[in-house]
Amino acid sequence: MLKKLAVGAVALVVISGSEAFASCGCNNSLNVCNAMQQTRGSYHQNRLVDDVVKAVSQVGLSARQTKRIADGVSEYKRTMKKINAMKIFPIDSFMDDAFNEQKFISELSEKNTARMAAKAALFKYVFSVLTKEQRKAFKNAYAAPLIEKMIKLNY
Which of 41, 47, 97, 136 has most Cβ atoms within 10 angstroms of its Cβ? Predict the structure, then answer.
């Protein structure tokens, strides 16, 4: 039983590793592929940070608020780095001759949920630093490019 589980785990790791390697289009090495995937993830992380910073810069921050926002963004980046380093192996979903679909989904969605929570925490922190008038200006400045993209996609 234990031997079957170990063989199954190794097979799963090999299959998922080769699938990830093939999906990113790398021919050199697994390290290059991992670097590309991390860059891709950090691109989206940095894009959110850039959008938030751009919107916040339009609301007229004081020096103290600027420092606090910078601290919040740094904390968000540290959190995202930890989340991106999370390794999730839903091997517990495969028991004997059964498959636990709910456990498999919950384990795989754990990382995505952590990302969403980190983004929400960043916005909550930004809003806690801003005044009521600045919050309205931030909302308008942050939403304007998103609305523009939605209009372009629909026409």
Answer: 41
pLDDT digits (tens, 9 = 90+) for 24-80: 444 444 444 444 444 445 556 678 899 999 999 899 999 999 999 999 999 999 999
59 residue type, one letter: V
Domain of 103, CATH number, reads 1.20.120
d(C-alpha 81, C-alpha 90), whole Å? 21
Residue 148 has which token pair? 């523009």
Query: In this structure, what are the phi and psi dihedrals at residue 100, rounded to the nearest 5 degrees?
Result: -95, 100
Question: At residue 17, what is the residue type?
Answer: G
Does the pTM surpass 0.70? The reply is: no
Q: Is residue 82 part of a domain?
A: yes
Q: Reduced to 3 states, what is the DSSP secondary structure of residue 58?
A: coil
- The verdict on residue 110 lying in a domain is yes
Rg (CA), the chain: 21
Helix runs in the chain, H state only: 2-23, 30-56, 63-84, 101-129, 132-154
Which residues form the domain of 49?
41-154
